[in-house]
Amino acid sequence: MKEYEIAYTHDEMGDMIFRTSKWAHDAKGAVRFMLQKNPEKDGTCIFKRGGKGKIVSTKEITNK
Question: How many angstroms separate the most distant Cα atoms in the chain?
């Protein structure tokens, strides 16, 4: 398993960008841990804890 850093925005919080890290087999799986269902085609998504937002970026964290 690999660790991924996910940057996202939340509609209720303005222009702030939040970051979280998740462990998963791939980047798509890491994003799925945060969401109720897959993101829409325009990038909007519904988070598990409520609210809407967008996933800005997902990158793998490498520990050397």
Answer: 37
- Do the strands 44-46 and 52-61 form a parallel or antiparallel pair, or are they unpaired? antiparallel
Q: Please give the Cα distance from 12 to 33 (Å, whole number).
A: 21
State how far the Cα of 61 lies from the Cα of 63, in Å rounded to an integer.
7
**pTM summary value:** 0.83
The token duo for 26 is 């791939």
Residue whose token pair is 């970026």? 57
Residue 6's pLDDT is what? 93
Residues 6 or more apart whose Cβ sits within 8 Å of residue 53: 8, 9, 10, 11, 44, 45, 47
Percentage helix, strand, coil for the chain under 3-state DSSP, each rounded to 5:
15, 50, 35
Asked if residue 53 has pLDDT above 90, the reply is yes
